Amino acid sequence: MNTLSYGLLALLTANPLTGYELTQGIKPLWRAGHSQIYPLLQSMEEKGFIRHERIEQSDKPDKKIYTITEEGISVLQEWVRMPAEPAVLRDELHFKLYSLWLTEPDEAKALLLQRMEFNRSELQRYNLLIKANEALRDERGETRELKATTFGRYLLLQKRVMAMKSSIEFCEWAIGELERSSPPPAG
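The structure corresponding to this sequence follows.
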């Protein structure tokens, strides 16, 4: 089992999901496409960690809804207790910032504005996900405590909110630095 497999199991602890929904749900957390996810789902089903129910659809191909099994929960529980590997940060913006001297001030500013706009959009999305998680928590009659099935998701979403806010703050600061360091346009 690889990290992506455990991530898929983690997503299935909230609700049964289709392969498409798993692909969409994993996107904010991990870079993976259908070509990686579907073989993992098949492998995890063969190992007994998940099962699927086929839903017939008249206007579309049938779909599979995946559910985590007790064995899947056990294997996920074992994995959660293991220390996490150090984070590997892959952000193309980092290399672009390193090479920023090769651009013009307007191009550099546009790069940062584009990232800032993306982060604002993600911040809105994560805030909506927090509200949905709170609704799920209330629906399940849970409180904000370790043993609540929604607690870890709450922590993760808050981490993402903090990361987006920090990135927005960085972009604003970097744009200010650019404006201070760039000569005003001639005119």
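DSSP finds seven helices and three strands in the chain.
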